[in-house]
Amino acid sequence: MGRRALPKIDQTLDLSRHFYKVETLPAPWDPVAIFGREAPLEIELGSGKGLFLQNAAMGTPERNFLGVEVAYKYAKFIGHRLAKRGITNAIAVHGDGLKMFREQVPDASLAAVHVYFPDPWWKARHHKRRVMNESFLEDVVRTLQPGGKLHFWTDVKDYFDSALELIAQVTPLVGPLAVPEREAEHDLDFRTHFERRTRLHGEPVYRSEFVKQ
Ligand SMILES: C[S@@+](CC[C@H](N)C(=O)[O-])C[C@H]1O[C@@H](n2cnc3c(N)ncnc32)[C@H](O)[C@@H]1O
């Protein structure tokens, strides 16, 4: 599926509290400096246009959310989206999420990791570029707190099956737990934009959830 152009953003809006670059995140890692409070932190890798971040932040105000997105214009668009709505418990970060996990996210610091509809890299010789790889999964296990969750959804059956096999092989995560499909109550009542598009096309979505014990 291709992507539509992004709506224009208001260049005068102050994004300084909602849009970061991986290199400008506080070092050492300090979510309190970003969010101004202590709260369970959830990270989404590959946030696209940011629907998950917006809905999750508004629906669970007692948690903090960080979305990392490698495409600059999407990351900035998300920052704008969050700033425009005055959301204080979510930020967008521009950069390589795999590198951020490897180099910056501390052990046992996360309540959840979310990966929704990652780029499928269809050709077998490109599968090594898939984000659900062994090294990232090791980082997920390392950075989740006990009881923390990994959420992985996709519309690509082959990616789903191979990622679940890899999770079983290389991690102690418990799952997959069943994630039932929910009826959408309004036009943006989907986990992400890609879930919305996939379901509006009448195609299946494969959902999984794992827990670190
Ligand atoms: C197919 S889109 C899905 C977007 C969104 N999760 C959704 O479901 O609507 C995958 C997104 O992952 C981003 N991405 C790919 N590799 C990444 C990485 N290493 N770090 C951060 N974002 C990444 C891409 O730029 C793209 O926006």
Automatic annotation (TrEMBL):
Catalysed reaction equations from the record: guanosine(46) in tRNA + S-adenosyl-L-methionine = N(7)-methylguanosine(46) in tRNA + S-adenosyl-L-homocysteine
Listed GO MF terms: tRNA (guanine(46)-N7)-methyltransferase activity
UniProt entry tagged with the keyword Methyltransferase: yes
Binding site for substrate: K123, D155, T192, H193, F194, E195
EC number of this enzyme: 2.1.1.33
Top EC group: transferase
Pathway(s) it belongs to: tRNA modification; N(7)-methylguanine-tRNA biosynthesis
InterPro entries: SAM-dependent_MTases_sf (IPR029063), tRNA_(Gua-N-7)_MeTrfase_Trmb (IPR003358), tRNA_methyltr_TrmB_bact (IPR055361)
PANTHER family: 3-DEOXY-D-MANNO-OCTULOSONIC-ACID TRANSFERASE/TRNA GUANINE-N 7 - -METHYLTRANSFERASE (PTHR23417), PENTACOTRIPEPTIDE-REPEAT REGION OF PRORP DOMAIN-CONTAINING PROTEIN (PTHR23417:SF14)
Function: Catalyzes the formation of N(7)-methylguanine at position 46 (m7G46) in tRNA.
Protein name: tRNA (guanine-N(7)-)-methyltransferase
Source organism: Lacipirellula parvula
